[in-house]
UniProtKB/TrEMBL annotation:
<keyword id="KW-0808">Transferase</keyword>
<protein>
    <submittedName>
        <fullName>GNAT family N-acetyltransferase</fullName>
    </submittedName>
</protein>
<dbReference type="InterPro" id="IPR016181">
    <property type="entry name" value="Acyl_CoA_acyltransferase"/>
</dbReference>
<dbReference type="InterPro" id="IPR051016">
    <property type="entry name" value="Diverse_Substrate_AcTransf"/>
</dbReference>
<comment type="similarity">
    <text>Belongs to the acetyltransferase family.</text>
</comment>
<dbReference type="Pfam" id="PF00583">
    <property type="entry name" value="Acetyltransf_1"/>
</dbReference>
<keyword id="KW-0012">Acyltransferase</keyword>
<feature type="domain" description="N-acetyltransferase">
    <location>
        <begin position="10"/>
        <end position="163"/>
    </location>
</feature>
<dbReference type="GO" id="GO:0008080">
    <property type="term" value="F:N-acetyltransferase activity"/>
</dbReference>
<dbReference type="InterPro" id="IPR000182">
    <property type="entry name" value="GNAT_dom"/>
</dbReference>
Length: 167
């Protein structure tokens, strides 16, 4: 695409099974941007199962330009005990560099917000790396606010196995 193509109207649609390879490619691109490509383990088969298997536990939407996927949002449902409602946790939002600034990220976020409102979900949440100022600026331009009073914790790999073996 040339520089003017990134200003085309952003389209968003739910992902289909045929989109799994391009979603997998964009997951790798996102990980490369975050200097974490070595951590990507997901296979197309795993992605297909979680999105389209017998018991889907995650969902994806694609941003398109000229009919071609240029970004994605991968999300799943969470639950707020305080509010008593479901919400959406946005696991990944990614727009390919050549089309950033064309409204694709906003279109994906708008679609997720619309989905929350339509379904009575009261939260749309996500995490962003502290150094990723362009993304922080983008999210804040939408009205999102940082939740400074919370810290993210994670158990993986050996620490998870050890904790799971404890009694």
């Amino acid at each position: 695409m040339n520089a003017t193509d990134n200003r085309t109207s952003a389209g968003v649609r739910p992902a289909t099974p045929a989109d799994v390879p391009v979603i997998r490619d964009m997951i790798r691109e996102l990980a490369e941007y975050e200097a974490s490509a070595h951590e990507v383990r997901v296979t197309e088969e795993q992605l297909h199962d979680v999105l389209f298997g017998d018991h889907p536990s995650a969902y994806a939407h694609l941003a398109t330009a000229g009919g071609e996927p240029v970004g994605f949002a991968l999300w799943f449902l969470n639950y707020s005990t305080w509010r008593g409602t479901r919400g959406v946790y946005l696991e990944d939002l990614y727009v390919r560099p050549g089309v950033r600034g064309g409204g694709h990220g906003k279109a994906l976020m708008t679609e997720l917000a619309r989905l929350c409102v339509a379904r009575g979900y009261e939260r749309l949440e996500w995490s962003v790396l502290n150094w990723n100022q362009p993304s922080i600026d983008f999210y804040e331009s939408l009205g999102a606010r940082r939740q400074d009073e919370w810290s993210v914790y994670r158990l993986t790999d050996e620490a998870l196995a050890t904790a799971g073996a404890s009694r």
